[in-house]
Design goal:
This protein is α+β, with helices and mostly antiparallel strands. The chain contains four helices and nine strands. Strands 1, 2, 3, 4, 5, 6, 7, 8 and 9 form a nine-stranded mixed beta sheet that branches.
Length: 193
Amino acid sequence: MQARWIIGAACAMAALIALGGCEMFVTPPANLAESHGEECVVLTTALEKIANDWRTNPGGPRLQIDAYAISTDRIEPDYASKESGLLPPKDTRPIDIADCGTPLSTIANRLEVVWPAHEIPTGDRKSCWRTDGGWVSRAAIDAEQNHAVVLYTDDVCGERYWLLRLSKDARGVWYADAPDPLKREPVVPPQSD
């Protein structure tokens, strides 16, 4: 009887791994916005620059990023002082980067999209967790669609994040400047009595 149970458990585990492991248990956010074509191009251009930049990815050849592009204030609540007028308003709905299709596939060999095992961060770094991958913000694109800004962090709880400024050339191709590393105040754990 116990042998049958072990065999059954092994078969269930093999099926789970074949279907995508624990990712199948991750519930996507209820209010995902639709991925927009221009924003997908901006996001993947920014991610390609991040993946190619040694300052933001010193640990390996592939960038690991959580699947949802989130509101900038979930990464950096004080974002307005960094690049006023370009970053999207607070509380914009997340989009699923994995839905970006063709733009994303162009950098698939340098980017690994993972579905987070935790809820989307709240922006409160005093009560947060280490992420499975890095987080990227929704892209802020100006009215003329010639300039954009994206925030990236490799750990929402940590002290490091990066600002990426992008611009479109005369041919309509987006280019990203080198990621601009920014420092936050370290999170100090509350003292216990």
